[in-house]
């Protein structure tokens, strides 16, 4: 699918790099409207800079924080007016230098300075403090902060709370542009309904925009106009400023760069704009809303009739190969990491509104053909009496593992209603999800859940699981039957709550040989699949042992997921072309270049040979270190190369 604004009007409020952002918009077929909202004005009389220089030269400054590239260069230029130019960089080398992102890093390198601490993306003041906490204590130290535009009292307070003696060093201030005509013209464009997108690359832009609108008595009309305009903000600080003025940002890229903002909005803007204008027409206040507030009108066609993913599940021809990705919501996404800071993982899963918001966010960002509800396969073991927790660095841990038949017998017989938070999340997500995008529910398969319950967590060899399985087949069968009964009810309740398909994850079953799978697992999986409501497709996915594939087919799932250990063409031929398959790119490929990602996707599509019944996916979940833009590149590549 082309990355394209399709001639839509895109207003950019960037000032210093206004030509660059307009060129980007036009590259993606947008009609660019430039409305610079600010100018950087150096302070004419700046005694604070020279006071800072004197302290630095006398070794009375321990840490210098550089917040912008422009400010870093201006600071060096101002000091060079009074002192030998080489003196400033020489003195900096004797201090701890902190660079807030790539722009001050580049400016410091021009001075031949390698920063002591580089603040990671998204380069907020919170990220800066966290980087200092990890690399250098400022307790009892004199810390100079190169200010830009306006002071940041939150950063100053954070440094003081850590015991620092803070010296602000203002270099320039932001003011309104000399010529306000372009901004006023942009305001008219917005109020008249001619604009489609508005892009903000700093907080001061939105502040200045509304300052001008308030002076012209058009602020209320402008705020109302934004209800029908897709708002893009380059990062969290700009997004917070938009929120301060009573509106909600519609898109914020994972990487806080202007080029990413423009490109990703060109990718996803059509859907975002359609959703926002549909919501506005449906009397939803899009100035103050979350993704879960969306409600599609009843006149929109149902998911089942128009969903490319569901058609592929049912082996029907599709206009392109549908794609979704296991673990498509996860730590590789900045927005997910931000949400995860607010609550422990289990609480995220058990808070329906947050779980739904995460599920919707991922579809909105990636443009995949199916959402999967944000949850965890181990949730059903808690009502059975297992003490589940997620430990940093270890993952899931169960501190009362099953060791004997007596332990199995003591398990509770849970009511599936104890997992109602999952069903609530599904209902919220299905209501807010675009009607032609499928919603997938899921569960862990009996063997994988049993393995966690016996091992107490992840395991290399599953010795305890296999020992109980062989030593006491009666206890094993009892455990598998209990899990199967629970999972049938759990998946059917998910379907009743709005899941359009369900997936069974058997993450650890690849540790078994075929004979053991046939004896100890297959009867239970077959009974489970037979007990699940047939109105929706069921996907069976397992990893690690290609020899088990023929046995997976015997359990009669609608779709068989393939991991990356098998050749898709060979596996599909062996399963039979009447079987729908899903897969199976190695997740590690997403750590390579965009060209390599496209080449690898092309190979998978060639192996599928355009047959009906192929759903593109990874051979396992997205890895936490995956660049988000590479995931989007894969989605685009599959859609583009498979379009008929």
Give a structural overview.
With 644 residues, the chain is of the alpha/beta class. The chain folds into three domains: 9-36 and 187-289, Rossmann fold (3-Layer(aba) Sandwich); 41-175, Rossmann fold, CATH 3.40.50.10090; 303-642, TIM Barrel (Alpha-Beta Barrel), CATH 3.20.20. Helix content is 45%, strand content 13%. The strands form four sheets. It has a seven-stranded parallel sheet. It has a six-stranded mixed sheet with strand order 3-8-7-4-5-6, sandwiched between helices. The chain is globular and about 85 Å long. 47% of the residues are buried. The mean pLDDT is 95.
SS-based class? alpha/beta
Radius of gyration: 28 Å
Mind summarizing the main beta sheet? 7 strands, parallel
Sum up the overall morphology in one term.
globular
Q: Kindly report the CATH topology of the largest domain.
A: TIM Barrel
Low-confidence stretches: none
CATH class term of the largest domain? Alpha Beta
**Number of structural units classed as domains:** 3
DSSP helix count?
28
What is the CATH architecture descriptor of the largest domain?
A: Alpha-Beta Barrel
Helix content: 40-55%
Biggest sheet strand order reads: 11-14-15-16-17-18-19
Q: Give the DSSP E fraction (strand runs of 2 or more residues).
A: 5-15%
**Distance N to C terminus:** 12 Å
Mean pLDDT: 95
Total beta-strand segments: 19
């Amino acid at each position: 699918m082309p990355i394209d604004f399709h001639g839509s009007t895109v207003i950019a409020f960037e000032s210093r790099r206004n030509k660059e952002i307009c060129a980007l918009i036009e590259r993606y077929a947008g009609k660019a409207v430039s409305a610079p909202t600010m100018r950087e004005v150096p302070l004419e009389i700046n005694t604070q800079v020279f006071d800072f220089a004197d302290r630095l030269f006398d070794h009375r400054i321990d840490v210098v924080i550089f917040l912008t590239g422009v400010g870093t260069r201006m600071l060096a230029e101002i000091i060079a007016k009074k002192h030998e130019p080489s003196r400033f960089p020489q003195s900096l080398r004797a201090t701890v230098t902190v660079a807030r992102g790539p722009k001050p890093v580049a400016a410091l390198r021009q001075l031949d300075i390698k920063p002591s601490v580089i603040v990671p993306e998204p380069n907020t003041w919170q990220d800066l403090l966290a980087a200092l906490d990890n690399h250098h204590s400022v307790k009892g130290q004199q810390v100079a902060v190169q200010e830009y535009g306006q002071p940041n009292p939150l950063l100053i307070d954070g440094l003081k709370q850590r015991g620092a003696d803070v010296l602000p060093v203002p270099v320039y201030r932001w003011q309104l542009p000399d010529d306000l005509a372009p901004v006023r013209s942009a305001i008219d464009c917005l109020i008249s309904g001619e604009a489609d997108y508005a892009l903000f690359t700093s907080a001061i832009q939105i502040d200045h925009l509304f300052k001008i609108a308030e002076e012209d008595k058009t602020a209320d009309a402008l705020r109302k106009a934004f209800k029908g305009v897709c708002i893009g903000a380059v990062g969290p600080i700009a997004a917070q400023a938009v929120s301060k003025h009573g509106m909600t940002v519609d898109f914020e890229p994972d990487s806080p760069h202007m080029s990413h903002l423009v490109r990703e909005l060109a990718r996803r803007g059509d859907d975002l704009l359609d959703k926002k204008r549909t919501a506005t027409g449906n009397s939803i206040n899009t100035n103050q809303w979350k993704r879960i507030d969306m409600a599609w009108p009843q006149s929109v066609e149902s998911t089942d009739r128009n969903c490319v993913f569901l058609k592929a599940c049912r082996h029907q021809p599709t206009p392109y190969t549908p794609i979704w990705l296991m673990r498509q919501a996860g730590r590789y996404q900045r927005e997910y990491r931000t949400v995860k800071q607010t609550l422990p993982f289990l609480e995220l899963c058990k808070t329906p509104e947050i779980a739904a918001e995460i599920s919707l966010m991922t579809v909105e960002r990636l443009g995949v053909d199916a959402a999967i509800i944000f949850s965890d396969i181990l949730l059903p073991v808690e009502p059975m009496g297992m003490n589940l927790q997620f430990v940093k660095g270890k993952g899931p841990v169960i501190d009362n593992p099953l060791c004997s038949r007596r332990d199995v017998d003591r398990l509770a017989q849970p009511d599936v209603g104890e997992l109602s938070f999952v069903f609530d999340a599904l209902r919220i997500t299905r209501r807010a999800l675009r009607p032609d995008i499928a919603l997938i529910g899921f569960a862990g398969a009996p063997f994988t859940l049993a393995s966690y319950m016996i091992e107490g967590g992840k395991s290399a060899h599953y010795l305890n699981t296999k020992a109980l399985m062989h030593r006491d087949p009666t206890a094993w069968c009892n455990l598998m039957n209990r899990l199967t009964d629970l999972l049938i009810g759990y998946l059917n309740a998910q379907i009743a709550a709005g899941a359009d398909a369900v997936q069974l994850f058997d993450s650890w079953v690849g540790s078994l040989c075929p004979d053991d799978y046939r004896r100890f697992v297959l009867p239970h999986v077959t009974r489970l699949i037979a007990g699940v409501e047939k109105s929706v497709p069921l996907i069976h996915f397992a990893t690690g042992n290609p020899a088990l594939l023929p046995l997976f087919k015997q359990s009669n799932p609608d779709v068989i997921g393939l991991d990356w250990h098998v050749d898709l063409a060979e596996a599909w031929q062996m399963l039979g072309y009447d079987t729908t398959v899903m897969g199976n790119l190695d997740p590690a490929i997403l750590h390579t270049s965009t060209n390599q990602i496209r080449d690898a996707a092309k190979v998978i599509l060639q192996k599928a040979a355009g047959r009906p019944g192929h759903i593109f996916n990874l051979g396992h979940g997205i890895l936490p270190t995956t660049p988000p833009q590479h995931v989007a590149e894969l989605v685009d590549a599959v859609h583009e190369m498979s379009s008929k």
